[in-house]
Amino acid sequence: MRDYYACTPGSQLETLYIGGTNDLMRRVDQHQQKVLDGFTRKYNISKLLYYETTTDIESAITREKQIKGWVRRKKITLIESMDPYWEDLARLWNTPAPQTLHSAQDDNSFNQQTPTDRKNAIP
Prior knowledge:
GIY-YIG endonuclease; 3 strands; 5 helices
């Protein structure tokens, strides 16, 4: 079964980008390496600030669109529920996840596991 992500990368200047992908590690690497032309390259979007995971692509697309429709303050509140210091969450993938992470919405089909956590959980 494939995982899908609704994610919020950002920049040092706190420019936000809401996106979706089926390979979060690859997408973060693309943003950090400036491989893709467009908004994320122009505004130096390279830090992963927030993400949610689901196995249902329609849920991921719906969630991405929902977050895109929010005002900036609500997006910031969502980010800070997982990442209060606006650190690059991708840098934490090789360290144990803090136990205090929690879902920022009531939809239980999403969770905040890292791709590495899920990979290590496969028997």
